[in-house]
Amino acid sequence: MVKEKVVLVNFWSSPFGSRVKIALEEKGIPYEYKEEDLFNKSSFLSTINPVHNKVPVLVHNQKPVCESLNILEYIDETWTDLSPRFLPSDPHQRALARFWADFIDKELYESSKKIYRGIGEEQVIGKNEVLRILKLVEGEIGDKPFFGGDNLGLVDITLIPFYSRFYTWETFGKFSIEEECPNLVAWAKRCLQKESVAKSLPDPIKIYEFILDLNKYFAK
Known about the structure:
By secondary structure, the protein is α+β, with helices and mostly antiparallel strands. The protein contains eleven helices and four strands; from the N terminus they run E-H-E-H-E-E-H-H-H-H-H-H-H-H-H. Strands 2-1-3-4 form a four-stranded mixed sheet, with helices on one face. Strand 3 (57-60) and strand 4 form a beta hairpin. Helix 1 runs parallel beside helix 3 and helix 4 runs antiparallel to helix 5. The protein is globular. 32% of the residues are buried. The model has no long low-confidence stretch (mean pLDDT 96). Residues 4-83 form the GST N-terminal domain. Its EC number is 2.5.1.18.
């Protein structure tokens, strides 16, 4: 049997890369991790992702797969024999999971940047947009332990990496996500009890310090 070679090319602070790490860890797939310097991108990155030149990229047996949600589905469809499955078997539930994952993917990151890069009214708009998104998603979990039911699913893995940025959003925006979305924070704490999540997320303080440095970099 040919040995699988799996490589994850990523940057340590990327919530999108953390999604892939969680998925690989959840299924117990051995992989090699390659850190990419986003401020001095390698020629390797442009080779494996010539369209966007971004991380994360999963390289499976020398074949690259780009974009985090696409990678999550690729992992689920390639290693079908490994549990858990990230997408439900029911077509309607599968469509719903894809809808919410896509919603989080398109809305949350861009809105959150307004909180730590914006000032005045723009920052307030960013905070309100983030809270609107989080409350909508919070309403979807209902009384389930996870969005995926009893196990982490596509929506859980899509959202939980942003938990490492909650501290940054709260500090810049001067608000409490736990006060606004208590059920969502309780869900996040359940996720962190899983080793696959705990070992894949960067430290919130390091993220905060990195974003402070990033703001100084962009202010030059």
